[in-house]
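BACKBONE GEOMETRY TOKENS
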Amino acid sequence: TGANEFFYLDEEKIREWEIEEDFFKPVIKSPRECKRILVNPDELKFKLFMCHKDKKELKGTAALEYIEWGQSQGFHQRPSCASRQYWWQAPVDKGNVFWGKEVREKIAVFCSEYPMYADCRLYLANVSGWYQAILNSTFTAFLAEAMSRNLGGGGGPRSMMVYEVQDLLTIRSDSIDNQTTETTYTLFKRYRSMVLQPFIEDINEPNRRSLDNMIFDVLDLTQGERDAVYEAVISLVEARLKKAGSV
């Protein structure tokens, strides 16, 4: 945003300034706010100040008073803000899937039912509902862990760069028929609303296993190969966390 102190509004600040509802939108400030794979806007701490009107259009609004206060604090002189047509215009990129830049013991690609804003601590994209399910399968988690950079040091968090998200291997969309797509998404809707657990515990959750089996079926994996995927991803995650605990 260029000025988080201005653009991120908590309930106290919204009440203090009596900012009109039209001028703030839900925003994911941190992956830690997401208790489930499916993002619940009511569980998010902040709203994003979002205004694309000029001052003449805003005459008589609390939003204008807030903008003028921000200008008195010098926010308009910050490089990111000064480069905009109106300095109070926040970036407008939205997505319905979100990757945290650091992955710890909980592994998830967070999803929303409609496009939302997110802080730069997350990467975002827009994908179909059934593809959200693929991104949250154990097979995709295995690929992400196996292909991640080994940074040495303390381990623990797996740091992700944007190119790693872009290069992440997933199942081809044309490899899944319509019926499988519908079934996969139905299974995912059950799983995505559950409270997110550490991956080592979550991997045995029945709804996740049902989702995984749909993906494994598409890949035509044998039972032995399916077991090997689970063993491999558990081993990779445990090794990463154990390394962190030993430092």
